[in-house]
Amino acid sequence: MVVETAADRAAFFATADFGQAATFRPKFGNPVAVTIVLDTAVAVAPLPGALGVTGPKRIALLRKDEVAAPAKGDRITVGADTYDIRSGPELDISGEIWRLDLSILP
Q: How far is CA 16 from CA 32, 35, 45, 50, 84, in A?
């Protein structure tokens, strides 16, 4: 059962708290002004055998009501940094927030 409300999500994404103004740039279509939450997660790169290398990776949280269907290859610009969506976005348990795995573009 999801316990968060629309008001909870709005507070979380507020730019006074965690939210950052960004531009969502789909491969096809027009750019859209959005608010995202940028974060760092742990990436695991498997090596032969049972070993692996861990390191940081960038993720973004994006409200579904701002972008209905982000896709691999779409881009997000925050300030001077542009990120590529690396893999298929996933909705959280509430079905209201996209989790996007990002890679920064040079």
A: 21, 11, 35, 43, 25
Enumerate residue ranges in the chain where pLDDT < 70.
1-3, 42-47, 50-56
CATH number at residue 20: 2.40.10
What type of residue sits at position 79? G
| Residue 22 parent element (H or E) | strand 20-25
Per residue in 23-40, pLDDT (tens digit) is 999 999 999 999 999 987
26 part of a folded domain: yes
Q: What span, in angstroms and rounded, lies between the C-alpha atoms of 83 and 60?
A: 10
Q: Which two structure tokens, joined as six digits, stand for 25?
A: 């740039």
